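We modelled the chain as a single entity of 168 amino acids. Its sequence is:
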Amino acid sequence: MKIRHMAMLAMYTTIALTIFTIESLLPGLAPVSGIKLGLANIVTLWLLLYASQKDAFLCLVLRILTASLIAGQMVSFAYSLCGGVFCFCTMAVLFRIFGKKYIVFISVIGAVFHNLGQILIAVIVLQSFSILSYLPLLTISGIAAGTFTGLCTHYAAKRLTKDQVWLP
């Protein structure tokens, strides 16, 4: 990996971490703990659009690991990682099928799968299926959050030219 490439990935990871940190300081969107927009996913979507799946995945994993270490919440690391991997794998497959044109749809499905991944790891960790009762609310919040982050990415991609985009 070239130094410029590593520097660009570090920059995108830092941007994602900054967005994550700012979002974590905002009040919750719903009475259920853990529901948030997932604005750092904009960076993952951006890298899927303009870089490679490998770069997007690396940035995602580094953001989750670093955020968990900095926040001192290693307990939530498994939840974040499982949700992030579910989300990423789904978005990567859909991106290969549909391409850039359907980035909002891809984001929505990714957000729903992020919540599904977190629910599945919760069922395993808590050894209880009662957590599945949150799935309808998390699906609705995933659709809303995925739409918002997808639209943010879509409009940013429309406004910026290739010369204005820093690529790894």
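As a brief sanity check on the tokenised model: The CA atoms of residues 60 and 84 lie 7 Å apart. The chain has a mean pLDDT of 90.
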